[in-house]
Amino acid sequence: MHFVGWQTASMARAEIFRALGNDRRLQILTWLKDPVAHFPPQRDGDLIEDGVCGQLIAEKLGITASTLSEHMRVLQTCDLVTAKRIRQWTFYRRNEAQLATLASIMGGI
Fold first, then answer.
1. pLDDT tens sequence across 8-21
2. CATH 3.30.497.10 fits 2-107, yes or no
């Protein structure tokens, strides 16, 4: 039983490293750290409170909405970002608590 838990934790860590091993996902996380500095004001949703509209992120990266959706799915699966729907749009924010936990774990390796 203990082995199963360890194996699950190892797989979760592997997914986080896979998520962070992509330059575009790292760029997204960097931009979301200070959204006001990297994105224009939005018509719907506050950049800080609600997050950044996925469409703005896709445009800034120069990728399609479906490609962005896959990047954000990976980041959400690892709980590195959270998503919020406003109207037909999805807004993304960093999960600072999860990123802080990850940083403390990485410091201990």
1. 566 677 888 889 89
2. no
